[in-house]
Amino acid sequence: MAEKKQQVSRRQFLNYTLTGVGGFMAAGMLAPMVRFAIDPVLQASGSSDMKAVADMSELTNEPQRFDWTIEQVDAWYTSEVTKSAWVYLDENDEVVALSPVCKHLGCTINWAGSEDHPNQFFCPCHGGRYYKDGVNVPNTPPNAALDVYQKEVRDGKLYLGNAVAREEA
Amino acid sequence: MLQKVYDWIDDRVDITPLWRDIADHEVPEHVNPAHHFSAFVYCFGGLTFFVTVIQILSGMFLTMYYVPDIENAWRSVYYLQTEVAHGQIVRGMHHWGASVVIVMLFLHTLRVFFQGAYKKPRELNWMVGVLIFFVMLALGLTGYLLPWDNKAYFATVVTLNIAGDVPLIGEMTKTLLGGDPTIVGAQTLTRFFAIHVFFLPAALFVLMGIHFIMIRKQGISGPL
Ligand code: HEM
Ligand code: FES
Ligand code: FES
């Protein structure tokens, strides 16, 4: 009789089949839509070309802002967008090219943007500050140093690519 | 686990009678295709609902990429169909579903008509059904403009001119629908979009709600 107890009742069988078939249909319906919706997360990000930004002769020891434009493809909308960098030559005459995007919450920083801190980068949003080399001043909101641009010097011109985060100090 | 979650909620708000009321009821023998195969005609209402659910879901997902703007509508549709994973499938579901839903609705109406199921006391539900039919046609019409290609554009020109031919209120109706007395353009597209994704679906939900509540109250009509 123990055997009989194990048997699946007609009602259970129907319940299982209906749940199975229903689940299969729902999954078949939803799978393409979910994949469609999450596509932006799975798209490989494209690398950008190096662009000529400044003549080497323009650079000094003082950070200067240089702007240039790139063609940005945003899904069905292609446009020219302006990028900027703060560029100067360090003690060894090496080019330093810093991203102007604050590492706190993304506002735009300025060199000597605050009268009280003429030798620092300053972010107006929440008063974030960075030393000349881009390292964040402790006890101001940002908790990382400014990103640095990929750079290349060719024929007396400075070429910049993407801004990349520095290695953890 | 699931059972525990269910019990926890049921303990507090007593949901069992609620869902029993919605889902747990007898299917009369004469509408069960397992007893009489010809009873498959009773499925068309449910199939209409099923395809409508597909339309609503696929439509919601399409609006993640679609923009109702004359410069970008066509390009966004082209992008979602060619560049986004499964875009062709999701747009295809909405595109073909729009036709299938009308076919199902029509077959459902035929069944109700030839079985005389619209007779007293179900006249009201027949009227609600007719309204659902109109809302569905309007959804097909307004959706057809959205891809903003040549077919969409000229179909809309013709539609608006038909509206314009109505005596007395024609010109006004045409401007109201198209957003401009002469131009079929920016304002036409935004209006059709708003009507297609907000106003008509809202009307459809209300009507379907009434339709289903009445069915539960009155039951399915008896055998022939
Ligand atoms: C029963 C309901 C519906 C019907 C019959 C219907 C019908 C249509 C039709 C015929 C098209 C043109 C498709 C093409 O030519 O490829 C369309 C496009 C569209 N519909 Fe719907 N629709 C319904 C519900 C909805 C809902 C609820 C939404 C959004 C919440 C929606 C959003 C869209 C969008 C964004 C488009 C433009 C994308 C495209 O053309 O592929 N639809 N619809
Ligand atoms: S965004 Fe720069 S300090 Fe907050
Ligand atoms: S629009 Fe030309 S014949 Fe109807």
Automatic annotation (TrEMBL), chain A:
Q: Which residues form the Rieske domain?
A: 87-160
The protein's job, in short, is: Component of the menaquinol:cytochrome c reductase complex. The Rieske protein is a high potential 2Fe-2S protein.
Keyword Membrane part of the UniProt annotation: yes
This protein's assembly is summarised as: The main subunits of the menaquinol:cytochrome c complex are a Rieske-type iron-sulfur protein (QcrA), a cytochrome b (QcrB) and a cytochrome c (QcrC).
- A Pfam family of the record is Rieske
Q: Which organism is it from?
A: Gracilibacillus halophilus YIM-C55.5
Instruction: Say yes or no: keyword Cytoplasm present.
Output: no
Organism superkingdom? Bacteria
Q: Which InterPro entries match?
A: Rieske_2Fe-2S, Rieske_2Fe-2S_sf, Rieske_Fe-S_prot, TAT_signal
- Spans traversing the lipid bilayer: 13-38
* UniProtKB keywords: 2Fe-2S, Disulfide bond, Electron transport, Iron, Iron-sulfur, Membrane, Metal-binding, Oxidoreductase, Transmembrane, Transmembrane helix, Transport
SUPFAM superfamilies named in the record? ISP domain
Q: Which family does it belong to?
A: Belongs to the Rieske iron-sulfur protein family.
GO function terms (MF aspect) = 2 iron, 2 sulfur cluster binding; metal ion binding; monooxygenase activity; oxidoreductase activity, acting on paired donors, with incorporation or reduction of molecular oxygen
User: What name appears for this protein in its UniProt entry?
Assistant: Menaquinol:cytochrome c reductase iron-sulfur subunit
From TrEMBL, chain B:
SUPFAM superfamilies xref list:
Transmembrane di-heme cytochromes
Query: Has keyword Flavoprotein?
Result: no
Q: Where in the cell is it found?
A: Cell membrane
Q: Which InterPro entries match?
A: Cyt_b/b6_N, Cytb/b6-like_sf, Di-haem_cyt_TM
Q: Which UniProt keywords apply?
A: Cell membrane, Electron transport, Heme, Iron, Membrane, Metal-binding, Transmembrane, Transmembrane helix, Transport
Q: Where are the transmembrane segments?
A: 39-67, 96-114, 126-146, 193-215
Gene3D superfamilies with a match to the protein in the record: Cytochrome Bc1 Complex, Chain C (1.20.810.10)
Q: Output the Gene Ontology cellular-component terms.
A: plasma membrane
Q: Which domain of life is it from?
A: Bacteria
General function of this protein: Component of the menaquinol:cytochrome c reductase complex.
Q: How does it assemble?
A: The main subunits of the menaquinol:cytochrome c complex are a Rieske-type iron-sulfur protein (QcrA), a cytochrome b (QcrB) and a cytochrome c (QcrC).
What is this protein called in UniProt? Menaquinol:cytochrome c reductase cytochrome b subunit
